[in-house]
Amino acid sequence: MASMTMIQALNSALDVMMERDPNVLTFGEDVGYFGGVFKVTEHLQKKYGAKRCFDAPINECGIAGAAIGMAVYGLRPVIEIQFADYMYPAYDQLVSEAARIRYRSANDYTVPLTVRMPYGGGIYGGQTHSQSPEALFTHVAGLKTVIPATPYDAKGLLISAIEDDDPVVFLEPKRVYNGPFDGRRDRPVIPWSKHPASDVPEGYYKVPLGKANIVREGADLTILAYGTMVHVAVAAVEDSGIDAEVLDLRTLLPVDIDAIVASVCKTGRCVIVHEATRTSGYGAELSALVQEHCFYKLEAPIERVTGFDTPYPHALEWDYFPTPPRIIKAMRRAMEA
Amino acid sequence: MSRRSNALDLHIPAPRARPGDAPDFSGWSFPEPGETPRPEIDAPAVELREFAYGLIRVLDMDGAAIGPWAPRLAPEALRRGLKYMLLLRAFDERMHRAQRQGKTSFYMQSHGEEAISIAQTMALDPSDMCFPSYRQQGILIARDYPLVDMMNQIYSNKHDPMKGRQLPVMYSSKKDGFFSISGNLATQVPQAVGWAMASAYAGDVRIASTWLGEGSTAEGDFHAAMTFASVYRAPVIVNVVNNQWAISSFQGIAGGENTTFAARGVGYGVPPLRVDGNDFLAVYAVTQWAAERARANLGPTLIEHFTYRAGPHSTSDDPARYRPTDEARAWPLGDPIERLKQHLMVLGEWREDQHRAAQEEALETVRATGREAEKVGVLGVEGAHEATSMFDDVYKDVPWHLRRQREDLGA
User: So what's the ipTM on this one?
Assistant: First the structure.
C-alpha cells in the first residue's frame, strides 16, 4: 500500500497494465516525453520506450481514429484527450465508429479502447477546460462511461476499463486530481494523504465496472453523485445534519441500478447532483430510473442540483459550481415535502 | 442593386457541363502512356512532388503496355483480373436490378471503377488489411469471398453475415482483411493509419490500404489521417478514388479546381502518385510500388485514382438530373474492362469469343448465386432474424438495461 493522489493512482494503473500486457500502449497530446499536462503518464515513456507512450499531433479525430485502428488490430490503446472539452473533433469516431464496430460487424471486429479525459470545473478553466460532457457518452449505445471519485477507485476502475473488451470513456474529475475538494472554498484543501481512499495497492487490482459504492450510509435521504460531486455531497451531508446516504455511482453506463433502487427505496427521498448542465443531463436519466423503480416508495419529488444551462462562466465559476449550500437547500426541500 | 467597382465576389465552383449540355473534357491534357518515370521505392518524398500533377499511364488507348511502370504480369494473372472485373460488373448490374425489383432497399455499383479495387487487391498481399469505402466490393470479389454471402448481406436475409444490422453493401470480413464499412465518410482513413501503426508497433509484416472518394477528402478525418500517417511513417496506402462526382457535386466542390487530389500529399510530405484509374496495369503498378515502399518501412503513399463514376451514386440517385447522360461514354480514358480486354487481345492472349464466354460465365455465376440467395430470402421476409437479436453485440455481454429492453420487446 502507498498513499497516492488520483494522478499517481492513474499513473500506477497505466504502469501496471503496460508491465503486464505488451498490447497496452498510450498516446495523446503532450503524453510522451512530458508525461501529460496533468502528469498522468509521467515516466512511462522513459520506462517503456517511446513506442508505448508517445506524443500525438493536436488532432483528437486522428487520436481516436488511429486508436480505433490499433484496437481493431488487437492492441489495447489508452488515449488521453487533454481536456474533455477538446473531445468534440473525436466525437464522430467515438460515437459512429468505436461504439458500433462490434455491432455492425456482427462481433467480427471489436474495439478494446480506453479514452481518458479530464473533465469538470472548479479550476478557473473557463468554457473550454471545465465541461462535463458525460451525458453525450451515456446517450450512445455501445460505449461505457466511467467516472472515479478517489485514487483507489481511479486505479481499479482504469485497470478494469483497459481490460474491458468494449470502448470505455474514462472521465477523470480533475478538480480532485490532487485532493478531495469538497466545495467548501473557505477551508484549506485537504491532501489525498489525509483521505482513507488514497491508500492504494501498488500492484494489480480491479474495481469492477457497473458497481456503485456507498460512501456514507444514511436512513433519511439518498444522494446520487459521481466524480468531484461525491466529495461535495459528503460535505453537504456533514453540514446539513440530515442522515443522508451518499452513493458514488462510479460507472454511469451500465449504471448500478440495484444499488440505486435499494438505497432510494430505503430512504424514500432522492437528490441527484452533477456539475454538467441540467437539461438532458445524466441526472435526467437518473431521475427517470428512480421514478420508474421507486415511485411507490418516494416521499418527496426527486431533486436535481446541477450546473446551470449556460456555457461555463469563467469569473462566475463559484456561482455556477454546485456547492454544499445548494445541495443542502435541495435536501431540505426533499425532507420538508 | 449597384455594385461597387472594388466589390468582392464569391466564387462557387461549377462543372462545365450540366444535363442537356454536351460532355466537355476539352483542354484536359495527360502525359502519354509510358512517359512518366518510375522512381526507386526509397526516393525521398520531396523528390516525388511532380508525380502529384502528372498521370501515370501504362496502357495506351490501343491496348499496348508502355514504359517503366508496365508491371510484369503473366497473361494468366491479366485474364484473372479481367474475369474478376467482369464478375464485379455482372454482380453490380444484377444487384442494382434487384433493388429496382424491391428485393432490397439500397445498392451501390462500382461501374467504371472496377480496375481500382481488383488490380489493387491483386497487387496487395492477401493478408494485407483493407479499410475500404462503400465502392470497393471488388476487394471481396478478388479475395474470392463467397458471392452468395455478399448477396445474403444485401438481402439482409437469414444468412446475412451482418445479421440484418447493416445497410446493404456495408460488408465486413475479418478473415479476408476487409474492414466493416461505415456510412460516415472517411472515418476509415485514420483507422487504417492506426491499424498500420499497430502492425509496425507489433513488428508484423502486413500493411494497410484504405480508400475514400475525392469528395470525402474534404472531411477532417482525411487530413487527420494524412498527418498521422506522415508523422509516424505508417505502412499504409491511402487511395483517393477521384471519380469526378460526389453524388451531385463535381470534384471542384471538394477542391479539385485549383490542384489535384494527389497534391494533398505534397503538404504532408507523403509521396503523391496520380494514376489513370481506368488503366488496370498502371493501377497495379503504383499499388505494387506503394506496397513495397510501405513494407520497407519507408512509410505511406497517397494515390489519386483518376476515374469516372459511370453509374449513379447509389440506387437512390439519378445522375441525369445533374450531369450529361453521355458523359461516361465521353470519358477520355475509356472503360477499364474494355481497355484490359484490348491489351490481352493485343498480346494475342484473348479473343472475342473467349471474352463473350467469360461474360456469359460471369452472368451465369451471378444468376445462379442470385437464385441461391433469394431462396434463403430477400429484404422484408418475416422471421429472417429474431427481433431480440438486435440486442446482441452492442457490448460483449448484454448489460441489465438492454436485458430489460429485450424483455419489454417480449422475449
Answer: 0.97
Q: Where are the beta strands (DSSP E) in B231-379?
A: 236-242, 245-246, 249-250, 272-276, 301-306
Work out the end-to-end distance of chain B between its first and last CA atoms, rounded to an integer number of angstroms.
68
C-alpha cell, B26: 476539352
Q: Which residues contact A214 (CB under 8 A, 6 or more apart)?
A: A245, A246, A247, A248, A259, A263
Looking at residue A55, its amino acid is: D
B164 by Cβ neighbours in 10 Å (0-12 / 13-18 / 19+) ranks as middle
Q: Is A129 a catalytic residue?
A: yes
In chain B, whose CA is at the least distance from the CA of A144?
B395
3-state secondary structure of B94: helix
Mean pLDDT over all residues of chain A? 98
Taking the CA atoms of residue B101, residue B105, residue B111 and residue B114 in that order, the dihedral angle to the nearest 10 degrees is: -120
The CA-atom distances, in angstroms, between B97 and each of A231, B90, B106, B375 are: 64, 11, 10, 17
Q: How far is CA A328 from the centre of its chain?
A: 23
Q: Are A231 and A183 in contact (CB under 8 A)?
A: yes
Place of cell 445462379: B368
Looking at residue A314, its pLDDT comes to 96
- Taking the Cβ of residue B203 and every Cβ of chain A, the question of whether any pair is shorter than 8 Å is answered with no
Q: What is the mean pLDDT of residues A106-120?
A: 98
Contact A102 B395 (CB under 8 A): yes
Q: How many other β-carbons are positioned within 10 Å of the β-carbon of residue B297?
A: 10
Q: Is A241 exposed, middle or buried (0-12, 13-18, 19+ CB in 10 A)?
A: exposed
pLDDT, tens digit, for every residue of A136-162?
999 999 999 999 999 999 999 999 999
Task: For an interface test with A, give the residue of B201, B209, B404 to mutate (most A CBs within 10 A).
Answer: B201
The model's pTM is: 0.98
Cis-peptide, bond into residue A89, ω within 30° of zero: no
Of A19, A40, A25, A312, nearest to A172 by C-alpha is A40
Cα–Cα distance measured from residue B15 to residue B25, given in angstroms and rounded to the nearest whole number: 11
Residue of A nearest to B161 (CA): A106
Distance from CA of A191 to the nearest CA of B (A): 37
Using the beta-carbon criterion (under 8 Å), do A69 and B191 form an inter-chain contact?
Answer: yes
Residue B14 is predicted with a pLDDT of 97
Annotated catalytic residue within A43, A129, A195, A293? A129
pLDDT digits (tens, 9 = 90+) for B46-90: 999 999 999 999 999 999 999 999 999 999 999 999 999 999 999
Residues A195, A189 contacting (CB under 8 angstroms): no
Q: Does B180 touch chain A (CB under 8 A)?
A: yes
Domains, in order of start, for chain B: 45-380 (3.40.50.970), 386-411 (no CATH)
Rounded-to-integer distance, Cα B312 and Cα B90, Å: 16
Q: Kindly state the cell numbers that stand for A109.
A: 471486429
Report the residue from A57, A68, A257 with minimal CB separation from B400. Answer: A257
